[in-house]
Amino acid sequence: MKRTATLFAALALAGAATAAAAQQEQFVPANFYWVGPYAPGGSGFGGGIIDYMAMLNERDGGINGVKLTWEKCETEYNNARGVECYERSKKKGPTGATVIHPLSTGITYSLIEKATADKIPVISMGYGRTSAADGRVFPYVFPLITTYWSQATVMVKFMGEKSGGMDKLKGKKIVLVYHDSAYGKEPIPVLTDMSKQYGYELTTIAVPHPGNEQQSQWLQIRQIKPDYVILWGWGVMNPTALKAAAKIGYPREKVIGVWWSGAEEDVLPAGTAAKGYISAGFNSPGSDFPVMKDIQKFVYGKGKGEFEDKSRFGSIYHTRGVVAGIVTTEAIRLAQNKYGKGKPITGEQMRWGIENLNIDDKRLKELGAVGLMLPLKVSCLDHEGSGLVKFQQWDGAKWKVITDWMEPDRKLVRTMVEADAAQYAKEKGITPRDCSKEK
Amino acid sequence: MLYREAGQFKSTYGQDQQIFPILQDRVAMSALLLVAFVAVPIFGDQYWLSAIITPFLILSLAALGLNILTGYAGQLSLGTAAFMAVGAFMAYNAMLRIPHIPVLGAFAIGGLSAAAVGFVFGLPSLRIKGLYLAVATLACQFFILWLINRVGWFSNHSSSGVITAQRMVILGYEFVSPASKYLLTLGVVGAMALAAKNLMRSETGRAFMAVRDMDVAAAVVGIPMMRTKLLAFAISSFYCGVAGALYAFCYLGTVEPEAFTLDLSFRVLFMIIIGGVGSILGSFLGAAFITLFPILLNFVSKGLESVLGVEMNHAMVSNTEAIIFGGLIIFFLIVEPNGLARMWQIAKEKLRLWPFPH
């Protein structure tokens, strides 16, 4: 009995202590996943964003004196758990959750309406609902940097270049192997639309969750004998696909992965089967960028940091998480400039911050992230910001960049985004914002 | 002492047949309902209402549906999540395609569609039993999800296969706040649980149990095998279908077919195994255990971290939680193979004698 009482007293004390320190804090939920078949991506990306925030706290004492705080919540890449984590985290900290990174297209879909109602912005960087790029209909959702549809158009362009011109795509066979979820289905409309334009033959093959069994899918591919295979996988599905491709003898140089299939964690388990495999990317890995060195010095140097396995430092998912951290904290900084320096901002103010984000070359240099990411300019009309994609190839030991940054087919993507957003607005009875009236 | 039925006389058949024959049970039940309908929505905060209690109630309903089929009629099924998916997607389509349909009408259509699917996939139960039947229902699980994924009509040709629940309006009142959604769920679940309780006390329910205990004997005494088994499938699927519709409309709001994978079917099956096979109460207890316990564990480990002042490796904590959870399931099944409902029953019997056990 006495022991219980002490425990409760200790709990109460701990609670009081956090409450007292809660004044100058900005709470960013860390709702990612560290267990299950998608853990490599979840822990890598989550580790990056937390490492960056920890570095800002250590080096600068937060943002204008406001400390960044976070709390981990395990979503297991599961929609129901993701919603539970969101509900749990949204009221934490002095101003509630600042912004949510769901790191799952499914969870993003589940949160679009909830977060909009709660006035908490959702950043779905490189995933999520593509048509949310139309900020007039989706004021609180930001598929920043680039979207699946932009990526799909760049992939087709890349395949065209590899074949020796876009007109050479006519009659070519392309197979899309996708994770059977909202995430995997996202590119299908764009790829179908472009197949009409360029005359290639598209076959879509679904791989059920979690994707550790792909024998029949790749046998089907062997029968089709495609010119290219697009791999739209996640987690354990990626190495399994590469191994299956090796087993049927399909050349890995013709397998082109989405950026969630193109990290060290995705190819290393496949061993030699992964050699030659190509994937897209929207950030560059590496631990030599000044910002990464600062993380090394201020976080890992003090015995902290998210990774026990130091070889993951500077990996693709880790740096992608750092990019997410930069985007998040830059938006907080911007919102503080407008709504009061040195004060925690609310979700609504954060929304303004993200929407007016403009990370140019000069700012990138100050951040020490030149090359890590591209300049980013968000606006009310365009919640995507950049859209550029590049390709990299796995040489058996590391990823080698093989193309320059490539432009998506902006016209096509934008037309489809607006059409899809307009349909959503109609279904939901939303009147799109007038961007000329936004300040 | 408090829980004693001495002095409570039953002088009519009506009194003898009521659901809670003991006065204390009636008082406790009324208090529980009062708390659920009044206190919880007033005092519960948004997190508890929308992320914990509402999904718990919805999964209880699904477990109840499976319990009718597996616990009462003895037919093993692994298709629960598929029936829920049918309910969710058909309720969505009913709202979309039938103008001015009331929300509850859409839920009913979802439930009835699931019942129809359950009826069809129940047909093999006439020939096969036990594990073999489970395999047949497993086919249902995969087939239904495949169908919903492949046929665009179900998701109104949404490119990502995701559906977003429409607004819920009953008599001009729109259900938006977590408390109102909770009350709607509670109303539906409460009414359906009461219906299930009464159904199991009726001729139909007794026929179910006769089939479960020995189908040859049941057939000999004149219980129509085909009708009883198919009815069990249809009623069970109806419950699951309504649970699926609630899952989409009152809980997640936006669902993709992936929400209803085999994983969920297994979870519901575990709920009834842990809660108690063949018990209405067991469905609720099991759902509470499976949905709430991992979250509780999570809070405990968070609390421990802040008390001890150390930050533990998150991946390790998450995995340990899963291990503890699995260990507890095994522990409970060894200690009481008939589930939490049976434990509750034993507790009640002991309480009747307390404090003079002899």
In short:
The complex is a heterodimer of chains A (439) and B (358). Chain A is of the alpha/beta class.
Describe the SSE topology.
The complex is a heterodimer of chains A (439) and B (358).
Chain A: H1 2-21, E1 25-27, E2 30-32, H2 39-60, E3 67-69, E4 72-74, H3 79-89, H4 105-118, E5 122-123, E6 141-142, H5 148-163, E7 173-179, H6 182-185, H7 188-198, E8 201-207, H8 215-224, E9 228-232, H9 237-247, E10 255-257, H10 264-267, E11 278-281, H11 290-298, H12 316-339, H13 347-355, E12 358-359, H14 361-367, E13 376-377, E14 390-394, E15 399-401, H15 410-428
Parallel strand pairs in A: 1-3, 2-4, 5-6, 7-8, 7-9, 9-10, 10-11
Antiparallel strand pairs in A: 11-14, 12-13, 14-15
Helix pairs in contact in A: 2-11, 2-12, 3-4, 12-13
Chain B: H1 13-17, H2 23-43, H3 46-72, H4 80-97, H5 103-122, H6 130-150, E1 163-164, E2 169-170, E3 173-174, H7 178-200, H8 203-213, H9 215-220, H10 225-252, E4 254-255, H11 262-275, H12 280-308, H13 314-335, H14 340-353
Antiparallel strand pairs in B: 1-4, 2-3
Helix pairs in contact in B: 2-7, 3-7, 3-8, 3-10, 3-11, 3-12, 4-5, 4-6, 4-10, 5-10, 7-10, 8-10, 11-12, 12-13
Explain this structure to me?
Chain A is α/β, with parallel strands linked by helices and 439 residues long. Chain A has helices at 2-21, 39-60, 79-89, 105-118, 148-163, 182-185, 188-198, 215-224, 237-247, 264-267, 290-298, 316-339, 347-355, 361-367, 410-428; strands spanning 25-27, 30-32, 67-69, 72-74, 122-123, 141-142, 173-179, 201-207, 228-232, 255-257, 278-281, 358-359, 376-377, 390-394, 399-401. The termini of chain A are far apart. Chain B has 358 residues and is an all-alpha fold. Chain B has a single domain (36-353), classed as ABC transporter involved in vitamin B12 uptake, BtuC (Orthogonal Bundle). In chain B, 72% of the residues lie in helices and 2% in strands. Chain B is built from 14 helices and 4 strands. In chain B, strand 2 (169-170) and strand 3 form a beta hairpin. Chain B is globular, with a radius of gyration of 21 Å. Chain B starts with 12 loop residues before the first helix and ends in a 5-residue tail after the last helix. Classes of the chains: A alpha/beta (439), B mainly alpha (358).
